[in-house]
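note to self: dont lose this again. the chain is below, predicted strucutre after it. 231 aa total, dont forget to put it in the shared folder this time
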Amino acid sequence: MRFFGRKYRSILALCLVAICVCGCADNPARSLWYRQQWEEDEKHGPTFHTRLEDLTSLRTGADQLNEAEQARVAQQLNQVLAEDPSPLYRGEAVRTLGSLSTPIAAEGLGRAIQDNEPSVRIAACQAWADRGDQEALQVLSQVVGSDTDLDVRMAATRGLANFSDPAAVRALGLALDDADPALQHRAVQSLRAVTGEDFGNSVPAWRQFVRGEPVRRPDPPSIAESLRNLF
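---
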């Protein structure tokens, strides 16, 4: 599996992809020229596009790898997270790590959740949510309360919907207390999935529930209101 190409050739290949997409769709001759350049570049090492394809193929067949193979691949991906300059490639590496069950993969995901790029941390939230174990619950709970990027906190809040656990409820309570309405709404959706309760979209009602206080359930809509909602 070819994870490491030459840095500058990878960047060049990515630029060629962008140019082809933006300017070559209506010019077959120009598109062919860029394809030939791409194939020529492949002779000197895998291009960025090829490296991404390798990761996709690896994710597809991850369940066929034995424990030793998973550990070897996870170690290589951990090195990618430590060294590769591309946030896009690191994000794809994180998604691939999420398909591996070896403990070494969890080490890489722990690094990814601290990455400087929010897009990589979002991918890490998704991967942790898919793992679904107690370590994942702890990591996502910490992200909800501490990450500085709203989109990352949104991803962690969404991921907590996978955990029917009191710790998940407490972490989602932190999201409810955030000033951002979108994060509050996402927390309500996750709480509904985690608890099986439904207090509508009333953030104050859900806050009461998280604190263990009695909650007055919203009245069911009248027939007239139900009919209006159909149109």
